[in-house]
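Researcher: Next entry in the queue.
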Amino acid sequence: MEGSPPKNASTVILVRPEANGKFEVFLTRRPPDMEVLAGFYVFPGGILEQKDYSEQMLRRCRGLSSSEAQRTLGNELSPELSLGHSVAVVRELFEEVGILFSVTENGAPLELGDNNLKKRLAEKRRALVDGGMDFPSLLESEGLYCDLSRPVYFSHRVTPEKHAVRFDTRFYLAQLPSDQHPLFSSQEVAESLWLTPAEVLQRSEKNGFALMPPTLIALRALAAFGSWRKLCHQYPLER
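Model: Structure for this entry, 239 residues:
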């Protein structure tokens, strides 16, 4: 019996440098009552939504063209769908942990020193999660644009056909903005933590730290870099 067609999805590995020259990755634990992967530690991400590559959304994008996105993903998808993968990274990261990759009309980075803006974005994030607002409308309401220069393509994984639920997932890397801090928990996150890739792998081996195979594969690849300098030599992460 053949498996179901895989759903397009995007996952983002948020990273930050350490003072000792190494780097940490950001993991979230899924709540125990979730239907899929309950209790597992994962990177933020999710299924692409049609709004992620709608005309309205594409007008709110900066830092990456649809043709560039298509080339980056190996010309396997349409330009719009390719760009939608990057948009899904930004949207999911904001929905799950409140980190927003965004720029203003003139291309300036989002400044979150304004407490009124921070409060409005927090309220609109809750509306986004609850379905009361979509992502392009949220950006439009604040005069903001999706900054697609931040997520850097990392890898591609398709769930094997033997599984009933399948995903065609693009993995991205992105550096944590220096002026933003992810939520410890949210509607979709029971808890979150920062660890080096090696530390996560050690915990997984010693105490059954629940990780799915794609997460393990990504962590092993990242652990091989060993330092922030080596990671950034391969991937243009620093801003």
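Model: The beta strands are 7-17, 23-29, 41-42, 45-47, 61-62, 102-104, 144-147, 152-158, 167-175, 191-195.
Researcher: Noted, moving on.
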